[in-house]
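Anyone else keep sequences and C-alpha cells together like this?

Example one:
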Amino acid sequence: MPKPNFRYTHYDLKEIRTGTIIEVSLNAVANVRLMTAGNFQRFIELLDFKYVGGVARKSPVRIAIPETAHWHVVVDGEGHNGLAESSVKMLPPNPATAARKTA
C-alpha cells in the first residue's frame, strides 16, 4: 500500500461523539487534518480525501467533531520546514450547550 511521501503523525481517535472538541498542541507550524476513517484510508492510499482543519500557525488548535464517527487526526509537515511535535486531547461536549440546542 502506498504512503504519502512526507512525514506525518497519526492519531486514531476511534468513535467520537458530535460536539467533542479535539485539541492539538504543536511546537511548530504544521497541517492539522481531522478526517473520518474512510478518508484516512484514502489519505494513505494517495487518493483524494476530505478533512476538517488546515495549516495551524498557533497552538493549541481546537476542532469540533461535526458528526459522530470514527475519526483520525493527521499532523504533517507538507509544505513546512519539518514535522512538528504534537499531542492530542479530547474535551467532551459542554452539556449546557447541548441542552440549549435540544430545547
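And example two:
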Amino acid sequence: MGWIADAFDSLRSLDIRQALTQLVNLGMVVALAVMAWKCLICVTGTESPVVVVLSGSMEPGFQRGDILFLNMGKEPIRAGEIVVFNFNRSEIPIVHRVIELHERQDTREISILTKGDNNDENDRVLYAKGHLWLQKQHIMGRAIGFLPYVGWITIVLTEIPVLKYLLIGALGLFALTSKE
C-alpha cells in the first residue's frame, strides 16, 4: 500500500496549474487515439477495422483471443474468405468463412453463406429470423491479417469488469501524479 499513499501524497502536492496540464495532456492522448481510430475507419472502409476472435469456432485457423485486421475493399467477396458479419448491429460480430455465394443476375445482388471452420453446420441458425443468406450490408469487413493472442486483454477485461475499472483508475491516477 506504500505506492498508493505515495500517489495520493503526490496528488496533494500538485498545484492547480500542474493538475490542469496533466488533465489536458490526458485529454490530448484520448483525442489522438480517437482520431487514429477514425482514420483507420476511413482507410479500411469498415466501421470496425480491428476485431477480437471471441470463440473457438474458427480453430485451428484463428484461436480465441486473436486480433483480426479488417478491410472492406471494392472487389467482390469470394468463397473461402474470412469475413466478419453482424446482423442488426448486434453487440458481438461473428468471424467465419464464406462457403457459398449466389449472385442474382437480374439485380447483381450477392447472397453469402458462412460457416465456422470448427463448426459442423453452416451459420443459418445465427442469421436473423427468416434469413437464409447474408447480404453485403451485413458484412463488416474481411480479414487481411491477424495478431495471435493479443486480444486476450480485451476478453479478460470484458469477462472480469472489475479489472477494467481498476486499470482505468490506476492509469488515471498515474497520469495525474506523473511530474513530467
